[in-house]
Amino acid sequence: MVTATVAALIGITACSAPDEDSTGASVTAEEGALPVTVTHNFGETEIKTEPARIATLGPGDADILMALGITPTTIVPFNDPTGKNVIEPWNEKYIAENTPVALGQATQNLGADIPKALATNPDFVVAVNNAVTREQYDNLTKVAPTIVREAQYQDWLIPWAASTKEIGTAVGMPDETQELIDQTNAKFDEAKAQYPNMVGKKSAVIISGADGSISIYGPGDGRGQMLVNLGQVFPAELEPLVTSGFYGTISNENLNLLNNLDQVVAIDWEGSNEKLKNNAIFNNLDIAKRGGVIYLDQQIGSAMSVPTVLTIPWAIDQIAPKLGA
């Protein structure tokens, strides 16, 4: 249970703890892998022994643990802020009968969900794939050892292999983690061999806004990472459009810039693709007229947005045939 002192430090209200047996880590560290010191954006964290209860605070953090046979106490849903739907096609076999506590607000307001995470009594906190502040980190470490992203990466721009390696090392399973990374890279290679037509094409991910503008996602974003890892290229001339870290906005007046691409991947978000299909200016673009727009549903987009060793194989099966058609 979170103590009154810790609650005051973090600025939270009291929460009742769930059954201790509802979820548990089941970590079996590799010989000689623990203790280990993980270096990250806020310093170093030493993990001395196998954690028994691991809370995850970032989308995708739980995937890495589950792929290693570890059930976390918390999970951040990919596309449901209500937290009612955390089971997805790529994770259902891991959590269908033992669902972690959902932190539905964690991507938008991490501070609001920290109390819920701490109420699961974690002895280790993984917050790699989220924008954690120094104050939040310092307060979390008063409860349990905590790791965040490595310093060389920006929030939300962490390569999937880097976050996988960091988390796997922290729980004392570096060799098995490397095997997962190798298997995932092999999946990319298999897709490129099976669909060679998609390799080398210039492409970008877009999402339509309610005002008719288009958001474009750069190669550092998870969706962009997926396309790059499938052998596609985000052209240098579009990089100035990525003005907000991992994305930027293109007004209708500048949509013609998309004509320089071979493919545009339009991801749906709450009906945005229907709006895009009804956007006369967009449909008059050369790339739209020549059939260069690939429309993907929201679930596929959610998987692409947080590439992990679980989401990547599933997402590749959905998108590679479309990209390589």
Description:
There is one protein chain. With 325 residues, the protein is of the alpha/beta class. The chain has two domains: 4-174, Rossmann fold; 196-323, Rossmann fold (3-Layer(aba) Sandwich), CATH 3.40.50.1980. 34% of the residues lie in helices and 14% in strands. It is built from 13 helices and twelve strands. The protein has helices at residues 4-10, 61-67, 92-95, 110-118, 134-141, 160-170, 174-194, 222-229, 272-277, 280-283, 286-289, 298-305, 311-323; strands spanning 36-40, 43-47, 54-56, 74-75, 101-102, 124-127, 146-148, 203-208, 214-217, 247-250, 263-267, 293-296. The protein has a five-stranded mixed β-sheet with strand order 10-9-8-11-12. Helix 7 (174-194) packs parallel to helix 13. The longest helix has 21 residues, at 174-194. It starts with a helix and ends with a helix. Mean pLDDT is 91; it is low at 1-22.
**Rg over alpha carbons:** 20 Å
How many E-type strands? 12
Order of helices and strands: HEEEHEHEHEHEHHEEHEEHHHEHH
Outline the low-pLDDT stretches: 1-22
CATH topology value of the largest domain: Rossmann fold
Tally of separate domains: 2
Class derived from helix and strand content? alpha/beta
- Share of residues in helices: 25-40%
- Biggest sheet strand order reads 10-9-8-11-12
Shape: globular
- Quickly give the CATH architecture of the largest domain: 3-Layer(aba) Sandwich
